[in-house]
Amino acid sequence: MQETGKLKVVAFFSLALKTIKVPVINTMSKTLQKRFGRSTDYDKSVIDGDKILQDCYDLIGSARDILGGRLILIECKDTIKVRKFYEDRGYINISENGDDLKQYVTFIK
Fold it and tell me: How far is residue 97 CA from its own chain's centroid?
């Protein structure tokens, strides 16, 4: 907080990652599609969703030490299986956006 005369000025900022939807991805070259595409580091027959979430939490923990933050926002497809996965892990459904995606949050412990 900085004092300017009798007035106290309070400021804050927030950093966030945001996903983007690329509607023309199927018209792009395979090389460009791979650059936009999802991670292929995980094979669900070898590693499960809980392990992927733990990897995410580990990275978020490191970033939080530098950036701060109080919650995690996840946007995901609106399927029963995906909704159940996040809800069973304590995520709260907060809204739907116009892209047929669900938005879930959980508070960082």
Answer: 14
- Three-state DSSP class for residue 49: helix
Q: What is the pLDDT at residue 89? A: 94
CA angle 56, 62, 67 (to 5 degrees): 110
**Distance separating alpha carbons of residues 105 and 90, to the nearest angstrom:** 9
- One-letter amino acid of 31: T
Number of domains in the chain: 1
Q: Which domain holds residue 36?
A: 2-107
Instruction: Tell me the pTM.
Output: 0.58
Tokens 């460009």 found at = 32
CA distances from 81 to 2, 77, 85 (A): 49, 10, 6
Q: Which residue has the higher pLDDT, 15 or 86?
A: 86
Q: Which residue is it, tokens 């007035």?
A: 7
Rounded CA-CA distance 4/77 in Å is: 48
pLDDT range class, residue 90, cuts 50, 70, 90: very high
